[in-house]
Amino acid sequence: MSLSTAQPALLVLADGTAYRGWSFGADATVVGEVVFNTGMTGYQEVLTDPSYCGQIVTFTYPELGNTGVNLEDEESSRPQIKGAIARNVCSRPSNWRCSKSLQDSRPGGAFRASPKRPQHGRAESGAGSDHPRGLRVV
């Protein structure tokens, strides 16, 4: 999905801080614990790893999806995360093992943005939506 066809999306943290961005992946409204992953590789493993079950994962590496996805690198048979947050999502992966793009794998609620906020060693609850009436910022 190109940015020109992406739906506007909204991420709202428990303290009311809101971030606007663009959706990729499944159309959804999700609620979960927002956590960070600082790995440069292994995004497919993170998406399917049961230890991330129910969490909204923020990937700090600036590009997600550049090697696509394949069946050999999955940690389980389906995505375990509630949602993914990334700065940029590659729409044309380049890898000989790639069977489809990350966007085609539809990893739950997903959000393209670059939230920059100092963290104080704690996770925070949040919700994300690409539905126009899914979340309201008050």
Overview of this structure, please?
By secondary structure, the protein is mainly beta. 7% of the residues lie in helices and 32% in strands. The strands form two sheets. The protein has a seven-stranded mixed beta barrel. It has a two-stranded parallel sheet with strand order 5-7. The C terminus is likely disordered.
Quick synopsis:
This protein has 138 residues and is mainly β.
Key words describing this protein structure:
138 residues; mainly beta; seven-stranded mixed barrel; two-stranded parallel sheet
H/E element order: EEEHEEEEHEE
Distance between the termini: 30 Å
What's the total helix number? 2
Radius of gyration: 14 Å
Mean pLDDT, to the nearest integer, reads 78
Oligomer state equals single chain
Strand content: 25-35%
List low-confidence stretches.
132-138
Number of strands: 9
Main-sheet strand order equals: 1-2-8-6-4-3-9
User: Percent range for helical residues?
Assistant: under 10%
Sum up the overall morphology in one term.
Answer: globular
Structural class: mainly beta
What can be said about the biggest beta sheet? Answer: 7 strands, mixed, barrel
Task: Describe the secondary-structure layout.
Layout: E1 8-13, E2 18-23, E3 29-37, H1 43-48, E4 55-59, E5 63-64, E6 83-86, E7 88-89, H2 102-105, E8 109-112, E9 124-129
Parallel strand pairs: 3-4, 4-6, 5-7, 6-8
Antiparallel strand pairs: 1-2, 1-9, 2-8, 3-9
